[in-house]
Amino acid sequence: MILAYIQAHWIEWLFAAAIAALGFVQNRVAKQLNEEKRKNDAIMLGVQSLLRESIVANYNKYQDRECCPIYAKESVKKVYEAYHTLGGNDVATKLYHTLLNMPEEPREEDEK
Question: How many C-beta atoms lie closer than 10 Å to residue 47's C-beta?
Fold first, then answer.
């Protein structure tokens, strides 16, 4: 009797086991994806913070000199593009625009 039942319904049991296994795998993959997203978000915020710090440091350096050479402006542009792509858009944006508007050479009266 049991053997006849198993022979008649083995396909249903097979599909039930397969569905249970797929559910287990899906759950593990979802947990791993959530953990990776959490880590990626932390890395993104860290990189964004480092880029912001670079913009602020360059601003402070060249603000003291009252000029910003072209090579420094090009470097800051690349840093800002990455910073902005990562979602940064705060005080560093104002500092970035101020840097770009600085003269590239010291004023003549400053050189004397």
Answer: 14
